[in-house]
């Protein structure tokens, strides 16, 4: 038995080394399909009891599906800031939705220099509208497309079509990188009859969902919603995402570029709430039934439901097919260094927070080199970190100050074990304090009444 285990380990290591060597020699195309507010468990392959996502499920069966992947922020701009720059959003002294990346290098800048044709389609939210033009962040093409003209196909049909046109036009002698950043399932969710009709048989059985979902059902009813109809609306929006993924995958196959194209599917953070704090509810709020499974929290919260998202990657011959990675802890803070490694880019910005996890993508398992951190840029906001299986929330005023969770036993963050593990709290708090001490002491943001509304946000 011992010999067999050693041989198995050697084979795994050989596979990873071969994948790394091959990647360095091949500059693969990169297609990044990024959803807006899609919950961790909003897909069939991630456990939703009613969702219809056959194309995304197929992508997962042909690649690797990660179960512990994290975003860098719990609202739209910080999430995009972290993945594009490789820096935690809290490091920026100016709100990037208002000012952009303040001269920092983006992954697309690096890929452009490496010979990639680069394109961005859909939601922007990486600076003011005036920045969304050719040349920004090394992007050759930027089209901040809003809702589709043909409403029957869902709101991101035009975004996907434009991205497909870009892929067709740039398949050839040079590799390409493309962002496809849709608007589904951001508020408001209101789908055409053609999409809702796919789920007419749905009758919500509340026991089919985790306890963490029950308050959203209660709020839906509280503001006058009908659970069955609201669920059909939300699932219709998710289904439209899957239809677009189906078109995209078929295009890649038709062009004969499947084997040399990395396809990544994910979401920018957790699902939006039904009732948003003091703002109360708005029309269609009852349809915001995004699901994070057993994870507590969602958008605007650093709880697992807000920070952990679906993450699927396919690259035939490099990323293991049909694999479910439940062990490795990965993050979009690693997006820049990982893609740089795969594309053969040797020079990275002097300051970077992420790490190269290409070995993990290729099937290896290991501990992270550094903890993960979250904090909004607002002065006085509470920081959060994860190291190993421990998740520490500092100064959560509503729930009694410091909270410590063992995510290997309590992914819903329901049992605060800070009192039982004072040494762990002390160690993690010291690291969290050291990290926050590195952050800017002031923070600049343009007041809402002094800036133009950015429709692409």
From TrEMBL:
Pfam families recorded: Sulfatase (PF00884)
UniProt keyword Hydrolase present: yes
UniProt cross-references to Gene3D superfamilies, sorted A to Z: 3.30.1120.10, Alkaline Phosphatase, subunit A
GO molecular function terms noted in the UniProt entry: arylsulfatase activity
InterPro entries named in the record: Alkaline_phosphatase_core_sf, Sulfatase, Sulfatase_N
UniProt keyword Hydrolase, yes or no: yes
Residue span, Sulfatase N-terminal domain: 28-345
Domain of life of the source: Bacteria
Keywords assigned by UniProt, alphabetized: Hydrolase
Similarity field: Belongs to the sulfatase family.
PANTHER family assigned to the protein according to its UniProt record, in alphabetical order: ARYLSULFATASE FAMILY MEMBER, ENDO-4-O-SULFATASE
Protein name according to UniProt: Arylsulfatase
